[in-house]
Every structure is written in C-alpha cells, then in structure tokens.
Design brief:
Number of helices: 3
Strand order of the largest sheet: 4-3-2-1-7-6-5
Radius of gyration: 21 Å
Shape: elongated
Order of helices and strands: HEEEEEHEEH
Distance between the termini: 72 Å
Length: about 130
C-alpha cells in the first residue's frame, strides 16, 4: 500500500512540474527571441577573460552589452580580422565559433568578439570595416 501512495504522489509532482514548465515555455515563446547577437568578448584583446553578452546594432550605434556591467560602445571600433579560436581559447569559448578582432579608432583598448559561425555575417554587417 505504501508503494502505491508513493507512486501516486510522484505522479502528482511530475504532472505539476510539467504544467509549470509548459507555462514558462509558452511565456518565452510569446516574448520572442532576445534582441542582439549572442557573443562573448574580451577587452583588451588578447588579455583578460571572455565575458558573455550581446552585440546590439540599432540607431544608437553598435554596442556590446555584457551580462553584467555597463554597455561598451563599439561606434569607433572597426572589424580588422576574423579567425578561428586557438586550442587554449577553445576551452573558454565554443571551438566552433569565430573571433572578430576590432581595433578601436579612438586609441582605446581593442576588443575581440567571439560569435558562432552562423551569426558572423550579421556581426560583420553591424561593425564598420
């Protein structure tokens, strides 16, 4: 008898969890995809650590918005080179991504932005060359 009660309790908990997860999934679908290009960036280039964020290219000019912290404007930066990540960088970021090196025009620190290969064209269109 105790096994039947535990089985019924487990079934009720699983059904409630399924309803909550389905509701959350529907809310996310209704909101649509998040704006911007998902990426990881490091600043200054070649140093520091990779930080997740999104590149936005709208009327205010291109900017990188990290997951934490203030936005970094990329208006003066231009895309110089595209390369594949090294083995060491592949441990921190996805090895299938591409790294875009951006030189700062105003003398500030250079930025490296890692995006997935499918998002590369969209990023290059957003940044001046």
């Amino acid at each position: 008898m105790a096994g039947v009660i535990e089985f019924l309790l487990f079934g009720l908990v699983a059904a409630a969890a399924g309803l909550l997860l389905r509701r959350k999934h529907r809310r996310r679908q209704a909101a649509g995809p998040p704006a911007g290009i998902p990426c990881m960036a490091r600043r200054p280039a070649g140093e520091g650590r990779w930080r997740p964020g999104r590149v936005h290219a709208d009327g205010a000019g291109p900017r990188w918005e990290p997951a934490r912290g203030p936005a970094v404007p990329l208006a003066g930066a231009r895309a110089d080179a595209v390369r594949a990540p090294s083995v060491r960088e592949g441990l921190s970021i996805n090895p299938g991504s591409r790294i875009v090196a951006c030189a700062a025009a105003d003398g500030g620190p250079d930025v490296e932005i890692a995006v997935m290969a499918l998002d590369l064209r969209e990023l290059l269109d957003a940044l001046p060359r």
